[in-house]
Input
Amino acid sequence: MKITAMDITNKEFKRAIRGYSAEEVDEFLDKIAEDYETLYKENSSMKEKISALNEKVEHYAKMETTIQNTLLLAQNAAEQSKQVAQKESDLIVKTANESAQRILDKAHNDVMKINDDYEQLKQEFIKFRAKFKNFMNTQVEMFNTLEKDVIKNYNIGSSFEDSLKEKDIDSEEEFKVKNIKSDDLKQDNLSEIKSFFVKED
Output
């Protein structure tokens, strides 16, 4: 059981012969009771302050825990966002590379096809030119034969021959078609070849 200031003030001692002075004892007890009361109040005040401080410390500790948890969640979220962004970036780069490769492959294939088409077109033109040249030569031969028959049968040879000599033209050479060799098909004639087969809209 705790002793209070009131207990000290009301404390009574038995009287004995040659004992202490009752007045001095009472005065001392009053002083002790007063000091005790002061210390008690100070102690109570300190306990209240300590309790309040403990509550604040506990509050700050909870806040610290919350902040740490929040920071941890933020760090995790940032790491996840970084990983997601990295994956998306890798996917974009991969897709771009694949698209670029497809474009390059298609362009290469188109170039190869154009080259093949050009070579085929050139060969077809060479064949067509040869056929057309043979056709023209045949027509010229037919014309020359017809001309000779007309000159022979209708007796117009002298005047016709004289007319050609005045112009310095050989009747045998007049309608000959120039021979075109395959070597004549050079790079600078490609535009003419192409334009020959291109249909105008």
Q: What stands out?
A: The two ends are 121 Å apart (CA to CA).
